[in-house]
Each structure stands twice: as structure tokens, then as C-alpha cells.
Amino acid sequence: MRALIVSADHFEDTELLYPYYRLQEEGMQVDVASIARGRIVGKHGYEVVADIALRDVDPEAYGLLILPGGKAPSKLRREAAAIAIAQAFVRAGKPVAAICHGPQILITAGVMAGRRATCSPSVAEELQQAAAEYEDSEVVVDGALVTSRRPADLPAFMRETLRLLKPSR
Amino acid sequence: MRALIVSADHFEDTELLYPYYRLQEEGMQVDVASIARGRIVGKHGYEVVADIALRDVDPEAYGLLILPGGKAPSKLRREAAAIAIAQAFVRAGKPVAAICHGPQILITAGVMAGRRATCSPSVAEELQQAAAEYEDSEVVVDGALVTSRRPADLPAFMRETLRLLKPSR
User: Is the CB of B13 less than 8 angstroms away from the CB of A18?
Assistant: First the structure.
């Protein structure tokens, strides 16, 4: 199974790198998509190479979407191709795992109404305004949607994300 | 099972944080030990709280030792308590996983002679001088000793470390 991480400059480094390495540990191919192909740089200076531009992503080629946090999501939510990718995953019922500011992309994609979810405390208000049911928990699983709040939640975030994939692996 | 991470300021952030979160994901309690209790700061600015001072560590309380890289090991190898911890784990045949510059601590501990291992390329020469059999591979497993070269090796590093623990979990 292939997994897709959608991010951009100023990503929260561990929120991208932990899932990136973790999914590789499971033997998955993990592609990183960004506004353009090439190097993106995290808030803490880690560099990751984006394998593919958002506009070239075929969501059908992937079985899992990861949306890390940091300042990247506030930029990505203004990218039509990022929004279209998120909508395609949700529409297809495929697993989507978003952490910290990552759910901002899902809010703009208009897919959060009636969903139970968590996020960075600073995003909680707009999540509620999007008619989602906000919970202050380390991880919230609602169907194929997994959300967490911050880097310290990464163990629970990936445990539940991988549990969701287990039946299909 | 409890795991112990031994590190100090200027640790390579992902080489500490990936194992730290990964072992928590497996449900383990993970303690961080450093020269003194309290905050240590990585090369990329991540802060981790050291739960215990090296001199207060009882190696018998732990089933796994993780030695991350960065500039921390060059400082830790001058700490008698860090060396004693490494020696106690090797003597007891317990799993020790060291990455990048982490094996420097094992070299000073005098436990590398005749062992197959890898490390950061910049440590390879002194590893060979310590009579170890150096291999340029993403991960080398020799008995209960797991070694890797760099952050990009973390998926293989933790896959093999956890495989080693499986029988006892």
C-alpha cells in the first residue's frame, strides 16, 4: 500500500517525520506531495524532498493520507489541488490522519460537519464552527478519520492510524 | 517493559524522538537519562525532559537501551555513569540500539571488539580501531546489538530493535 503525506514549508518536523519513518518501518512506500516538487523545510530546519506536486497527485494511487501540522496547512488550504486531494480521500472512505494544524485542510475541504475530531487548541474554534464535534483527546478516531493535537500525541496517532489499516494490509 | 534512552544536549532530534515515540506506541514506559535531570535540547531545538540523572539509573530496571546520535555521545563518553550503564546492558545481554554517533559511547565502554556494527561515517574509523567489524548498512544486528548510521535509517533501526524485543514481550 502507498501512503501520501501532503505538506509544505514550515511543517512541524516531527509530525511529518514520525509518520514518514513509521510507515516506511511497516514496509509502505510513502510519497510526499507539496506545492511543487523538491525540497521543503520544516520549522526546526529538517529538509524533506517532495516527490510530487499536488496537481500531479492521483488520489486513487494511495491508500492513506497524512496531514502533518505546523504552518504548512494554513498555506495548503489555499491550494485547490490540496483541497481536492482531501475531498477525494474522504469521498472514497479512505483513511485520513491529520494532526495539530493538519485538520485546517479538512475544514476548508468542507468535510468536517458532523465528524468527531481533535486538533491543535488554536484550531479548535474553527473546527467547531465547521460543525465538527471537537474533543480534547490525544487521538480521536471517527470512521476512517484519525486526528490528534500535537507532537506528544504521535504514539497514539500512529497506533490508531495503523490499526485502521490492519484489515486491508 | 521499560526502555532507557541515554542522551544529552545537542542530541540529533529525530534519533531521540523517533525511538521515544515509537516505544511509547508499543505501550512501553520510556525514561530519558542525562547528565542531570531536567530539560535537554536537541540540535534542531526540540526539548525533552530527562527523567533521571545517569548516576541514579539502575540498569536492572530496564530491558532496552537506546543511544541516539548528534553531539551528545561525545559528551556522554566522558561520563563514567554513562559508560557504566552501557557496560551493564552489554554484560547482561540486554538489547542495546545505537545510531549515528551513539556507538561512540559503546567504543569508550570497551564493548565493541569483535562485534559487527555500523555508525555515522565519521565514527567508522574509530569503530574499526576498537576492533569492531564495520559495515556500511542501514542496520546491523549482532546478537542483542542493533546499530544504524543516520536518521534515514530509523525505520530499519526500530524495526530490528522491536523484532529483537518480540520474544520477551
Answer: no
